[in-house]
Design goal:
The protein has ten helices and eight strands. By secondary structure, it is of the alpha/beta class. It has two domains: 200 residues, Spore Coat Polysaccharide Biosynthesis Protein SpsA, Chain A (Alpha-Beta Complex), CATH 3.90.550.10; 103 residues, no CATH class. It has an eight-stranded mixed sheet with strand order 3-2-1-4-7-6-8-5, with helices on both faces. The longest helix is centred in the last third of the chain and has 27 residues.
């Protein structure tokens, strides 16, 4: 019987003592052969006990002084011994069959990149409910799109040789997984394989302010990708018109949804979603146009109003 391939699990970490224990516990209970998996925590200088918790679970901890997830993942790749490298984050919780399901597609030698399924972990706050409902981290929404298909790095596996050949961008603040997938797919003329049984839960942004920051930085990352690869993917007037239409329609959805709720034609959940969808859209595209104009990552301006979920 063919033995399971050696897998290196690489996790960037920086002061994540609050969540890393749950992730490590999930990894400790995988149904994958323990002698065929190594766990590497790439620490960016934690001061809250993150390293000690990781070492207590038997993880190898290496330190990377350069900030950013790209530098951490490159350091992990260089340290890894596995034929396959699996990536996840400290704010995720893998299910018991996560690793075996994520690795299985690599039985086909033509497979270079695999993405698993991501579910929101116990969404409680309005911001968490919105992210879970809009499929922000759902690979099925990003794997097969025409422009910049990708799988989020919080649930990804790649052949180590391919990962080393392509490398992770260490300049990108966000969207480094989009960039990584883009270059890998072009280099190897391949496609991403979706492994829906490779399930993990992700702790989404819980506050409105966290959601605002995430929308802004994601918008910046998309603009960075279009500018970096403008010889391959053109931003034109038609795209601008589509964005304007999206902003307009989502801006009008909340009052319409509220009116429908008054007539019992929709649910409070749909009303809440419409408000947060407008909120996300406005800050995403503000981040996009900020980067497009300034060609650099910037802190978003303070909102000229306070967005309070309890007011919905």
């Amino acid at each position: 019987m063919k033995s399971s391939p050696l897998v290196s699990i690489i996790v960037p970490a920086l002061n994540r003592a609050e969540t890393i224990r749950d992730m490590l516990s999930g990894l400790a209970h995988q149904n994958y052969p323990r002698d065929r998996a190594e766990l590497i925590i790439v620490d960016g200088g934690s001061t809250d006990g993150t390293r000690e918790i990781a070492q207590g679970f038997g993880a190898t901890v290496v330190v990377e002084s350069k900030a950013g997830p790209g530098a951490a993942r490159n350091r992990g790749l260089r340290h890894a011994d596995g034929e396959i490298v699996a990536h996840l984050d400290t704010d995720t919780i893998p299910t018991r069959r996560w690793l075996s399901a994520l690795v299985r597609p690599f039985d086909d030698s033509k497979v270079y990149l695999v993405g698993g399924r991501i579910l929101g972990y116990r969404p409680v706050t309005p911001a968490e409910r919105y992210i879970a409902a809009n499929g922000l981290h759902d690979p099925s929404n990003t794997l097969f799109r025409e422009i910049f298909p990708f799988v989020p790095s919080i649930n990804m596996a790649v052949r180590r040789e391919a990962g080393l050949a392509v490398g992770w961008s260490e300049e990108l603040i966000t969207g480094e997984d989009v960039d990584f997938c883009h270059r890998l797919l072009h280099r190897y003329s391949t496609q991403i394989v979706y492994a829906p049984d490779a399930i993990l839960f992700h702790r989404n942004r819980a506050t409105d302010e966290g959601l605002r920051m995430q929308a802004w930085t994601y918008g910046e990352g998309v603009a960075d990708m279009y500018l970096t690869y403008q010889n391959e993917v053109e931003w034109n007037a038609l795209k601008t018109l589509k964005v304007a239409w999206t902003i307009l329609t989502r801006a009008t959805q909340p009052p319409l949804a509220r009116a429908c709720e008054a007539c019992k034609l929709t649910t409070p959940e749909r009303v809440e979603f419409s408000y947060y969808n407008r909120f996300w859209t406005l800050w995403f595209w503000r981040g996009f146009w900020s980067y497009w104009k300034h060609r650099t990552y910037r802190m978003p301006p303070q909102p000229n109003f306070i967005f309070r979920s309890e007011a919905i």
